[in-house]
Design goal:
By secondary structure, the chain is of the alpha/beta class. About 40% of the residues lie in helices and about 15% in strands.
Length: about 210
Amino acid sequence: MSRLTHSASGTRARGAVLVAALCALSSLCALSSLCAAARAAEPVMKEQDINEQSVTRALEPAQSGGPDDNIVTRGFVLSNKPPAGAPRPAPAKTPSAQILITFATNSATLTDSAKAALDKVAGALQSEKLAAYRFRVEGHADPRGSADANMKLSEDRAAAVVEYLTQKDGIASERLSSVGKGSADPLNRRNPTAPENRRVTIVTVTD
């Protein structure tokens, strides 16, 4: 009788572990779906819609007092520190601009419309609000072709944007870096060949 009891207890324990694992897996899948949906919802600036104001708004870090800042008023100190045990607020999202810069087919050659758009981007980067920051230019490719070819293409496209901004528009080279993302981070997963998957992302470096 004792052996049967132990066997039943072990079965229940294994069942509980299995249920917990399935619940955790379900939560991860839901989170992954939410993240993918959030990426798909990110607006992409088309070349004809780019202007200095929209780029500045997208790239300017939020201005707010840090958690250690205190406000003194009439003898009282109002602290921005959260109460002990209170959950910390989620970190602010890194400012970035998804820009649909066009290139000649299967190449890293900027089109005339891309150059005109980048001239406006340069104006934003030289503005008072952004002049103190550095930026990372990320190139993206859609999944057509091999992974190696897509990575090389995305690297070349990001480098072409940096080269144009520095040599043509006079942005200091130390303020810009480039990196290729290949086809690993599409904005539109439902339509892999959508133009927004062949984009350039400009990210504000805040660290």
